[in-house]
Amino acid sequence: MKIEVNGEPRDIAATDLAKALTELGWSDLRVATALNGTFVPAAARCDTPLAPGDRLEVLTAMQGG
Amino acid sequence: MRDFYGVTLQTPMMLGTARYPSPATMEAAFRSSGASVATVSLRREQGAGQAFWDMVRGLGVHLLPNTAGCHSAREAITTAQMAREYFRTDWIKLEVIGHADTLQPDPFGLLEAAEALCADGFKVFPYTTEDQVLAARLVEAGCRVLMPWGAPIGSGMGLNNIHGLRTLRAAFPDVAMVIDAGLGLPSHAARAMEMGFDAVLLNTAVAEADDPAAMARAFALGAQAGALAAASGPMGVRDMAAPSTPLIGKAWL
């Protein structure tokens, strides 16, 4: 299905958020996730289904002021 | 001494982690200044995040994630929730930006986000102006720390509104306050601390100096001098001269 990951269109087979992270190669990385603008805690990723057109944000630590 | 949600900081200096010429320079600035808090942010994963996370943990300071770049309460709230999980802290430097050129806070979005985050157990450090009415509302919402700006972010102008900041400081004697944004020189940090503020937050002034580590140390010394002065009871200002050498015993020549 087609979703948007960090602003880029992606075609993925995974149907939940945890599997999507694995498919995208981020399963071992420390990241924080939001789906369609709403925070999804790490523990809830397995139970978070994805739908076509979803907007997924996968964030990590960055320099800040 | 005012604390930060129960935490007493070893030094009144908070330092940003952005804009340094290299990670090693950033680490050197932290070491030379003895800064006790590092501000950090969350951005899209592009490969560099894990190394940065390891590095900031290695600094051994309190981490204060920000919501920099957020222009709405909703964006800021989601970012704060993500930061709490990622950085394992309930501290959040809440920024809701209202204007692209001045980067001044949107007071309405800021208050809305502060209310929601305080209710959700966050320890909110709101980036705000010297506006006393907004400050009162933020305190009412549950904020125990305020971060009034000195001047627009990255401008280096120092304390733009001394009167407003002095009024704000006096109005909330129990609230810890950090001068966030706009400081350019160590004398600005000293001035802020002399006025009774509890800490200063710096980034650009240190990171973009020719020698960031030396400038960080200069700011730390300035802040320390100002804090010592504030605790020492500065003299009052008068309009006319008052001789310091006694007149009694002066010879008739």
What's the short story on this structure?
Chain A is mainly β. Chain A has one helix at residues 17-23, and strands at 2-5, 8-11, 32-35, 38-40, 55-63. Chain A has a single domain (2-60), classed as Beta-grasp domain (Ubiquitin-like (UB roll), Roll).
Structural overview:
The complex is a heterodimer of chains A (about 60) and B (about 250). Chain A has one helix and five strands, in the order ββαβββ. In chain A, strands 2-1-5-3-4 form a five-stranded mixed β-sheet, with no helix packed on it. Chain A is globular, with a radius of gyration of 11 Å. Chain A has one helix spanning about 15-25, and strands spanning about 1-5, 10, 30-35, 40, 55-65. The mean pLDDT of chain A is about 95. Chain A has one domain (about 1-60): Ubiquitin-like (UB roll), CATH 3.10.20. Chain A is mainly beta and about 60 residues long. With about 250 residues, chain B is α/β, with parallel strands linked by helices. In chain B, about 40% of the residues lie in helices and about 15% in strands. Chain B has helices at about 25-35, 50-60, 75-85, 105-120, 130-140, 160-170, 185-195, 205, 210-230, and strands spanning about 15, 35-45, 60-65, 90-95, 125-130, 145-150, 175-180, 200. In chain B, helix 3 (about 75-85) crosses helix 4 (about 105-120). Chain B is globular and about 80 Å long. The N and C termini of chain B lie far apart (about 55 Å). In chain B, about 45% of the residues are buried. The model of chain B has no long low-confidence stretch (mean pLDDT about 95). Chains A and B meet through strand 3 and strand 5 of A and strand 2, helix 2 and helix 3 of B. Strand 5 of chain A pairs antiparallel with strand 2 (about 35-45) of chain B, so a sheet runs across the interface.
